Amino acid sequence: MPDATDPSTVLSTVEDDVASVWTYVSSNDYNNAIDGWLQYDPDAPCTEGVLGCLSEMTAGFGYWMNMTDANTLEGGGNPWAAGNIAPPSRIITFGWNLIGHLGDTNYAVGCIFGNEGGEAFELGPDEYLATLAVPWLQIIGYDGTTPTVLEKTSILEAKKGYWMATRGLTSGLTGYGYIYIPVPPIGYVCPT
Prior knowledge:
- The chain has helices at residues 7-10, 109-113; strands at residues 18-24, 37-40, 64-67, 89-93, 95-100, 107-108, 136-142, 147-150, 155-156, 161-166, 176-180.
- The chain is mostly beta strands.
- Strands 5-10-7-8 form a 4-stranded antiparallel sheet, with no helix packed on it. A 3-stranded antiparallel sheet has the order 2-1-3, with no helix packed on it. Strands 4-11 form a two-stranded antiparallel sheet.
- The longest helix has 5 residues, at 109-113.
């Protein structure tokens, strides 16, 4: 988790080169989103609750950064905050989610999210014992020029954002799922 979540603090090492930052939240838990989008503009910072305002940057979310010049964002944090708490997590909803990889280790997509469709516990060639079985349909990465569809054997890189499409359990049924920092079962080694 970042040491601080205020966008101006998180972006302080690159803020002179940031034109805007965007995230997408399909969840109703973010009532101030405009068609799912939240934005931070360093020239006109907003406050929490203002329509369309990105007032917090935290682990588990993916962010689109519109830069005026190339730069590298540096920052710190601790995935395990002090105290006896649950591991960091992020709510995902059925449909599209802009996610960030929780943790600092690269893992195969299937190791974190299970096989396509959310089947996690049938191990075979290229099948994984997932930390969390999420009924995902597609995960897309972007390197700044080309979108790439990831497969279950593709590597999900730490410190990068991804689009993830999830499906409902039954037609018309919606609900929530969570993604957590990966903690593979004892004795199981996730491909990296």
